[in-house]
Amino acid sequence: MNILFMSLLAVLAATRVYVTEFNTRPIVIIAFCSAASLAYYFLMCRPSKVYLVDFACFKPSLNCLCSKELLLERAKGLGFLTEENFKLVNKILDRSGLGPWTYVPEAMLEIPPKLNLEEARKETDTVLFGAVEELLEKTGVEAKDIGILVVNCCLYAPTPSLSDRIVNHYKLRGNVLAYNLSGMGCSAGVLAVDFAKQLLQAHPNSYALVLSTENQISSLYRGNNPSMLLVNCLFRMGGSAALLSSHPSDRYRSKYQLIHTLRTHVGADENSYKCVIQEEDSEQKVGVSLSKDLMNVARDALKVHITSLGPLVLPVSEKLKFVVNLIERKLFKKKVEAYMPNFKLAFNHFCMHTGGRAVLDRMQKSLELDDWYMEPSRMTLYRFGNTSSSSVWYELSYCEAKGRIKKGDKIWQMAFGSGFKCNTAVWLALNNIEPASKKNPWRDEIDDFPIKANPTVESTK
């Protein structure tokens, strides 16, 4: 309120008029200045709007292209798999939802494969530098203009950090706010957007660069624990870069505006905390173990998450149906199923993390989505595999390449991650997005999709 008080004093001093019983002009002036000052005060206190200027998804070179057969051959060549587990890996790959060709680091395809720290660095450099350079080319923003940097990679945490590597390579300015997120799981891409949003609102008129990736070489499990082998089968090479802005003038050239972010953490529960955990097997070989409870944990986390998300995004009619159902079950003890709101009334496009075919099947069933809505997620899993925290960006790229994004559309990016976490980002399209108008990882092959990839729900769209 200091702004209001100082404004009033300044006006009175400038006009040199004083209130008398015969002069009402000062009262009018004071009232006008009070209203103007209050309006200015509240406008200045409102959080800055956050825009997604553009984003880029890294597409590896043809030298990284790998078939299922070649992957099995290299796995056999490493010699650590028993015959029983080799058959298990073959079976998992058949049922994974991945297509015949995906991408892995070149070092994994050499004979023998090079699985050392230097190659892990090279993999991350290739992915992140490739994504950043494409993004800077798309946006025309120079590296020196970036004030905030957020990098996330779950299992690969070298020293100096990955954010330090980006600062060094692109010679970012000395006062850049650089953050490195590790161990946050596959939902870290959405989590990083929420983090960048809060930083942008605290530092108006800034650019934030958000980078998401996972390192396949460093996360490769070289043992025979079946619960740890799934990660080797699903995860693939990939990464993304997104440029967020709190410059009001960027609204007119940005693709999207960030409407909501929401984070749910159910790690207080012991089963949820341990369902995805990095540990040593009986032979002291490190890997990520996936619990048999994972699907149930994800289901329960989703229920908690959408209970918070629904009031933010659903129309009134759906909110009323949900409340009535809740009263019937909790107050009147009726044995009726919990009502699942129709999120198709809130969102035009769904980008659900490509955790695997089983995860997507459960998501589709839980949210009662048609195949058309799940197509970006299933096709991303099919073509690129699970690229961890960057997968939701490959899915949004798919929607753009198909020409589906129209002005006013709302997009739901949602991802699960170890901990256990469920995170959401909701975007509003500010313009029609022309298909393949700029670089896009799908541009040269989008006409080949969708490919029938074991849908579970009859398509109605």
What does it look like?
With 461 residues, the protein is α+β, with helices and mostly antiparallel strands. The chain contains 16 helices and 13 strands. It has helices spanning 2-15, 25-45, 68-78, 83-95, 106-109, 117-139, 162-170, 188-202, 216-219, 226-234, 270-274, 294-313, 316-330, 357-367, 371-384, 391-401, and strands at 51-57, 65-67, 101-103, 148-152, 177-181, 207-213, 239-245, 256-265, 276-280, 286-290, 349-352, 410-417, 421-429. Mean pLDDT is 89; it is low at 1-5, 7-22 and 454-461.
Major sheet, described briefly?
A: 9 strands, mixed
Number of separate domains: 3
Please state the structural category. alpha+beta
CATH class of the largest domain: Alpha Beta
How far apart are the termini? 55 Å
Report the sheet-strand fraction.
15-25%
Low-confidence stretches: 1-5, 7-22, 454-461
- In CATH terms, the superfamily of the largest domain is Thiolase/Chalcone synthase
Query: What percent of the residues sit in helical stretches (DSSP H or I)?
Result: 40-55%
CATH architecture of the largest domain: 3-Layer(aba) Sandwich
Rg, Å, rounded:
25 Å
Q: What's the β-strand tally?
A: 13
Determine the CATH topology of the largest domain.
Peroxisomal Thiolase, Chain A, domain 1
Present the secondary structure layout.
Layout: H1 2-15, H2 25-45, E1 51-57, E2 65-67, H3 68-78, H4 83-95, E3 101-103, H5 106-109, H6 117-139, E4 148-152, H7 162-170, E5 177-181, H8 188-202, E6 207-213, H9 216-219, H10 226-234, E7 239-245, E8 256-265, H11 270-274, E9 276-280, E10 286-290, H12 294-313, H13 316-330, E11 349-352, H14 357-367, H15 371-384, H16 391-401, E12 410-417, E13 421-429
Helix pairs in contact: 1-2, 3-4, 4-10, 15-16
